[in-house]
Amino acid sequence: MKNSQAFWIRARQLGWLDGPGDDPHDLCLHGEVTVQAGAYFFAYCCCASAAALRMLQTLSEDHLCRDTDNGEQMLPCCGFCMYPTRDPDRVFITGCDHGVNYNVRPRGSRVLLSPKRGPETAVPFSLYRREVLAFARQVEAAYCRSRPKQLPQDPFDREGYRSFWREWAWRMKAQGETPRLPPGLFSP
After folding, report:
1. What is the pTM of this model?
2. pLDDT given for residue 83 in this prediction
């Protein structure tokens, strides 16, 4: 395992699938996301909103690659399948099997990152946390700048989207941050 002070997350061209304009029907923010952890670079044009929530999750829990990732990558191609769970503050996000995945294991004052198969690199937790929260703020800002989203008519799909933002909110609060939620999220 190598220790590294090099860790950053860059997001570019954040927007909606139909182009740079606002789309009130598109619930998923996409963009080019690159993560550097030591000598590793993970990059993909992905569902940035799902990637940011996955990264927020790794501030307190492991994310481990599996033999089949089944749409649960750290940088997923899509994240439009948002399912409410029995816990009203958690959401299960899945999509296609395209994307970039890597292992993340928070361990006290450091975070261990590695590709699916390969040696780990350790980065300071404080640096990892700062970069994850900055990326999450970029995602929040894009949603807050957009027109209110047209929530799905299907109650299950609507609850999945709302579960996404409830989990987002409690994870931000758990980090001592005030979440900035999109407008119109919980209106009928």
Report:
1. 0.94
2. 93
